[in-house]
Amino acid sequence: MLHARSAHSVVTAGGYVYALGGSGTRGPVREVERFDGKRWMNETTLPGNGLNAPAAVVLDDLIYVTGGFEGLSNVPTSAVHVYDPTTKQWRQAAALPAPRGGHAAVVLDGKIHVIGGGNSESTIADHSVYDPATNRWSEAAPLPKAEGSPAAVVFKGRLYAIGGRSGFSDYGAVYIYDAGKDTWSKGPPIAPRGTAGAVVYRGAIFVFGGESQRRNKTLNDVLRLDPKTNHWRRVNGMPTARNYARAVLLKDAVYIVGGSRAAGDSHSAAGSKVVERFFIRP
Prior knowledge:
The chain is an all-beta fold. The protein has strands at 9-13, 16-20, 23-24, 27-28, 31-35, 40-45, 51-52, 55-59, 62-66, 69-70, 80-84, 89-93, 104-108, 111-115, 127-131, 136-139, 151-155, 158-166, 169-178, 183-186, 197-201, 204-208, 211-212, 217-218, 221-226, 231-237, 247-250, 253-257, 275-278. It has one domain (9-278): Neuraminidase. It is globular.
């Protein structure tokens, strides 16, 4: 990338990868970068004074950047910034019900689901849902456990919350949310980790990197949840171990974008410019 980043967000919109927010070598990174599969370029500037540990999604071709901590601080915000890649304009949507950072966000059934993270005092289990039709947030069934830095994906119509942490404890639980019933159930656990990246790729869930605080180690694991056996298996290793790993799909491959290479780094760490491509032949 053009800018080193950690605790940032990545999304794919209109055939491009966008890297938003996070911390870099000179403080918060306000520049938003766009990647076409060959090179990175500065696209726009994030409103405000920068964010670390926000969560971003794409809904109806718009990029929503939810919450995060202001600058390099531990002060969370409830702001929701919306970027239109076509007009290259920013606007604000309805704020989160409460400030938070270090959470995860996904789009499920045309709505944005925000789970976990932390406020200025502790990790939280809150599960907030945004309806773009009404520009309003509502509360859904909370996570079974308060946790920050979980990975999250939507797979076969259900939301998967994978791993996470609180303080110096890492979690390996996988929780599965059924929106029709507004309930959580347990999925197959993984080795405990926080700050990992996750995507759905080639019909399965893949998890990339993260950190084990107990082992004081950044991780390079690439794990796959086999949809037939419902068990996790290590299928590969990233060339560069990273926490705050951010994984995103572009065309026929997964890109793991930025993150910190040093164990124990906070979400205000300098991060890296490393981008690595993961590909499996059909």
